[in-house]
Design goal:
Helices cover 46% and strands 15% of the residues. It has 258 residues and is of the alpha/beta class. It has a single domain, classed as NAD(P)-binding Rossmann-like Domain (Rossmann fold), CATH 3.40.50.720. Bound molecules: NADP nicotinamide-adenine-dinucleotide phosphate. The site of NADP nicotinamide-adenine-dinucleotide phosphate has 28 residues, from helix 1 and helix 6.
């Protein structure tokens, strides 16, 4: 990130889903900016590589292997962060899932899979983040939203509704916990060629180049959002520069709306 230095000096940042995509990008850049970082997910091999990059940046990392569909795992993520580092200053709620289905075709199993991760895990991670941040003297929670949060494409209904619920959760925390020094903000993330997005598009017969060209047609800025476009905004929201930024919706989408 250019010449900016020590934006997150000695902070402890916890990330749900720090093994891939923007979560991974934030984990590594947060370490370069002086933070110790707790990452989480199911993929231990991918986590190992992220931990190496955190160490190369001169900071400590810790991986919590978990399945966010279990609320006990949400508690364990923060328990391990407190055990290892003694405090939690920031929480990035990145993990999510984006299967496709219309309202007429959606089934209860897929609906539950989407809500278990995008809403229930976010809810119980936020509960535990607040518990730890109260002991740490405050903190910053960043929820990753989507342009789908307000209406959504026709074949993303459960996803769109889950991100709408996440927006309300963010507003709730922002309004009711600012007095505890805990800030919450929503980051509307643009259409980004992460591992998850590219895997979804591969099932629809598109390779990464085709995905980029297809997406570019819908995005006013004329290209997909890249991980590097998103990381600085997220780091800002996690940092003390955003002390008075509470309940914001920071759109980094290249102008994309649904
Ligand atoms: N890509 C886009 O265009 C886009 C646009 C707007 C918003 N978003 C949001 O960005 C976030 C990431 O989505 P993505 O599709 O782009 O994926 P991604 O970068 O591939 O990352 C998904 C992350 O979530 C973790 N995860 C998923 N299910 C989990 C579970 N059950 N337990 C633990 N960790 C789990 C994964 O960890 P493991 O693989 O290690 O389990 C991975 O680190 C989501 O919140 C999504 O709504 C994405």
């Amino acid at each position: 990130m250019g010449n900016i230095k020590d934006l997150l000096k000695d902070k402890v940042i916890v990330i749900s889903g720090g093994t891939k995509g923007v979560g991974k990008g934030v984990a590594v850049e947060a370490a370069r900016q002086g933070a110790d970082v707790v990452i989480s997910g199911r993929d231990a091999e991918a986590a190992e590589k992220v931990l190496k990059e955190i160490e190369n940046a001169g900071r400590q990392g810790h991986f919590v292997k978990l399945n966010l569909r279990n609320p006990e795992d949400c508690a364990r993520l923060f328990d391990e962060a407190m055990e290892k580092f003694g405090r939690v200053d920031g929480f990035l709620n990145y993990a999510g899932t984006t299967p496709a289905n219309s309202l007429e075709e959606e089934n209860p199993e897929q609906f539950d899979a989407v809500f278990d991760i995008n809403v229930k895990a976010a809810f119980f991670c936020a509960q535990n983040a607040i518990r730890c941040m109260k002991k740490s003297g405050g903190g910053s929670i960043v929820m990753i939203g989507s342009p789908h949060s307000w209406c959504g494409e026709k074949d993303r209904v459960a996803y769109a509704v889950s991100k709408g619920a996440l927006f309300t959760l963010t507003e709730h925390i922002a309004h009711h916990y600012a007095q505890d020094g805990i800030r919450a903000n929503f980051l509307t993330m643009g259409w980004t060629p992460t591992e998850g997005e590219l895997a979804l598009r591969a099932t629809q017969g598109m390779d990464p180049e085709q995905t980029r060209a297809f997406a570019a047609k819908f995005i006013p800025a004329g290209r997909m959002t890249e991980v590097e476009d998103l990381v600085p905004g997220i780091l800002y929201l996690l940092s003390d520069y955003a002390s008075m930024t509470i309940g914001a919706n920071l759109r980094i989408t290249g102008g994309l709306y649904f």
